[in-house]
């Protein structure tokens, strides 16, 4: 990072080393515990009171202290980690080539990831949408590749900040929707247009028109990059005020963006977040769905009924906050037991969930339904 410019040979070497090996071989996966690591974290993270990842953990612990609807079954968490066939084998972020990685330009890769995570919410099927994550990541990849010229500065790149700042709803109807499978459309288009415009404008006016400038300001700290993202991109501010007036922080999309940047750019030596272990799991609906199904989370009768019947919960309600908080605490505990970072444990659980839902959801012998909340945050 820093002032160093990426050369094509660097990319080739980084890429060759990474191909087919999985994320685990590309990064320093030293255990989260241990004195050296603790000091390193202190050196890079923000002070406790303003650290976004600390705020997320504080939120999760606080909510779980008075939880009424969700219980963490600690002995079961241990079983899940140990379970045959579910051992933590770190997942390849780009398995199946579902993401765009520019062969020459970290800037274009970073823009792609930020666009992806701007829209990385509300996938669950409703009467008019059957959108899945890989539909989004691969259709954006197609658009990126189609406009990917030689020149790093090239303004013709579809996700150049100037283009993002002026995006219209026609981007979805004319460019993106046609790349989705028949009958699948992108929900909440108006909201997504606004989020993309916000991203383009913020990069132009706050970061000299470059995603890499924003990333470099983090000084290789995942925690600081989450902070920059939630400060400069309001659409990523996944916060709530609970019924008692307390602030609650989750930062799902901001944290997943940082993790995705780590996976996409770390492989070519462009980022090296020393405190990547500070990220929490990305509290959305797939991870708690898997944990509940496996017995690691137990829902009250009332909540179980709501979730099983696919009743939509209001955003920010107590039940939703408890599910998200329990997910964060449970994944931290599983990661600790397995000696990996929360982000790695998240990817492993998420990918296990994706395999489980292939067999259907909510029926006999199938994974239990996930909770439903209409939100731009996950
Ligand atoms: N907690 C967590 N949630 C994740 C992801 C990802 C993808 N991350 C990439 C990075 C590493 C992985 O290997 C993936 O290649 C998507 N999602 C969420 O799932 C939902 C879509 O699901 P479905 O409807 O089934 O396609 C939607 O809310 C989306 O935001 C993750 O990693 N963790």
Low-confidence stretches: 1-40
**General form:** globular
What is the beta-strand fraction?
under 5%
Distance between the termini: 30 Å
CA radius of gyration? 20 Å
- Helix content bin: 40-55%
What do you see in this structure?
By secondary structure, this protein is mostly helical. It has helices at residues 8-18, 35-44, 52-65, 74-82, 106-118, 133-146, 161-165, 170-176, 189-206, 211-216, 222-232, 252-266, 286-293, 301-308, 318-338, 342-357; strands at residues 70-72, 239-241, 247-249, 297-299, 312-313, 372-373. It has one domain. The protein contains 16 helices and six strands. Helix 3 crosses helix 15, helix 5 runs antiparallel to helix 12 and helix 13 (286-293) crosses helix 16 (342-357). It is globular and about 55 Å long. 44% of the residues are buried. Bound molecules: the ligand Nc1nc2c(c(CN[C@H]3C=C[C@H](O)[C@@H]3O)cn2[C@@H]2O[C@H](COP(=O)(O)O)[C@@H](O)[C@H]2O)c(=O)[nH]1. Ligand 56B binds at residues 91, 93, 120-121, 123, 132-133, 260, 282, 284, 286-287, 346-347, 350-351, 354, 357, 378. Catalyzes the hydrolysis of queuosine 5'-phosphate, releasing the nucleobase queuine (q). Is required for salvage of queuine from exogenous queuosine (Q) that is imported and then converted to queuosine 5'-phosphate intracellularly. One of its GO terms (biological process) is tRNA modification.
């Amino acid at each position: 990072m820093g002032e160093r410019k990426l050369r094509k040979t660097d990319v080739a070497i980084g890429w060759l080393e990474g191909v087919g090996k999985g994320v685990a071989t590309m990064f320093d996966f030293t255990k989260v515990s241990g004195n050296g690591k603790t000091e390193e974290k202190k050196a890079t993270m923000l002070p406790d009171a303003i650290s976004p990842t600390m705020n997320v953990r504080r939120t999760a612990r606080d909510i779980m202290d008075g939880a009424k609807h969700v219980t963490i079954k600690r002995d079961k968490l241990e079983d899940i980690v140990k379970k045959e066939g579910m051992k933590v084998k770190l997942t390849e972020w780009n398995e199946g080539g579902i993401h765009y990685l520019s062969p020459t330009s970290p800037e274009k890769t970073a823009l792609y990831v930020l666009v992806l995570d701007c829209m990385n919410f509300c996938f669950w099927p409703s009467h008019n949408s059957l959108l899945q994550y890989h539909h989004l990541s691969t259709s954006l990849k197609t658009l990126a590749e189609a406009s990917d010229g030689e020149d790093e500065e090239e303004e013709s790149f579809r996700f150049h900040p100037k283009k993002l700042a002026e995006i219209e709803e026609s981007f979805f109807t004319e460019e993106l929707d046609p790349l989705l499978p028949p009958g699948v459309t992108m929900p909440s288009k108006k909201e997504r247009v606004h989020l993309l415009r916000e991203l383009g404008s913020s990069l132009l006016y706050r970061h000299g028109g470059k995603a890499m400038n924003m990333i470099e300001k983090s000084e290789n700290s995942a925690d600081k990059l989450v902070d920059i993202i939630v400060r400069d991109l309001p659409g990523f501010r996944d916060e709530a005020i609970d019924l008692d007036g307390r602030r609650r922080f989750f930062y799902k999309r901001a944290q997943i963006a940082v993790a995705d940047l780590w996976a996409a750019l770390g492989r070519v030596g462009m980022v090296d977040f020393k405190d990547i272990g500070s990220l929490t799991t990305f509290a959305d609906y797939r991870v708690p769905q898997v944990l509940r199904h496996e017995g690691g989370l137990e829902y009250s009768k009332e909540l179980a009924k709501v979730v099983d019947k696919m009743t939509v919960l209001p955003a920010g309600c107590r039940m939703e906050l408890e599910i998200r908080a329990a997910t964060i605490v449970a994944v931290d505990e599983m990661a600790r037991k397995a000696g990996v970072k929360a982000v790695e444990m998240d990817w492993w659980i998420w990918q296990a969930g994706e395999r489980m839902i292939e067999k259907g959801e909510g029926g006999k012998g199938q994974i239990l339904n996930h909770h439903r909340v209409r939100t731009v945050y996950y």
